Amino acid sequence: MLRLAVTSRAETFDRLQEPLADRGIEVAHLPAEGRTVALDTAPSEAFDVGFVFPSRTQSGAALSALHALPWVNGRAAVLASRNKGGVLATLGAAGLPVPKTTMVASPVGDDAIVDAADRLGWPVVVKPNSTTRGTGVAKATDPDSLLGIVDYLDLVHDYRATGDKTFLLQEYLPDACDYRVMVVDGAYAGAVERRLPDADRESGRWKHNVHRGAEAVGVDLPADHRRLAERAAAALDVSYLGVDLLVTDDRVVVAETNARPTVDSATKYVPEFYDRLAGLIRRTANG
Length: 287
Hints:
By secondary structure, this protein is an alpha+beta fold.
């Protein structure tokens, strides 16, 4: 049986185990944090292939070398997808629709930041360039609130260990439906709509991240939305990708991508999801 290393023991690990075991792949935990790693000793446990490169990239580099691991999504794919600005620039250059966005590479003067927001139109969304799950994302309604957010970002960026000193200003699409689309081996593999409970929306909440209380509801997307997600994965050259689409009455844009997407329940994906995923894992293991 092929042995698959998964570095996180969260929802995805549990959901992968049984379906992949049915297809001859054992899902095993290779922790990338909360442990010591002997770098001068061959590991006692063997794996054939890794699932997605861990977010702790320094640990990931060591584990990759010690276990001679190929990854379904390697370090380059994870880092590329994590760079929100780089993703949007790449997709826009490939002719795909993306939200109007300005990258701010600190330090930048207040006037230039406010001018950029004016061009986008108020309110604007402020996003750290490299976070997930909606962490640090804020909405600014006027120059004062925007510059207050920027002050906090500048404080964080002052730390010498902070490598990324960029953030994004992005247009706000208040009535957009938020979809997470899974693409496996270049092909659409299912989608969910991320919905906030009515009470949360009425109280003014607007972030649709599942880890912040939204519900992921399986949906059947139209063909053009599916094709857009596939084109995004192809433009980024990532084999296993979550693609976030924002859909309004007159627009569909690719808002973000995630090369370490959480796997949801199988009923929310196409019937061949696990067959396709198992095939991708086997091909990666075979080089």
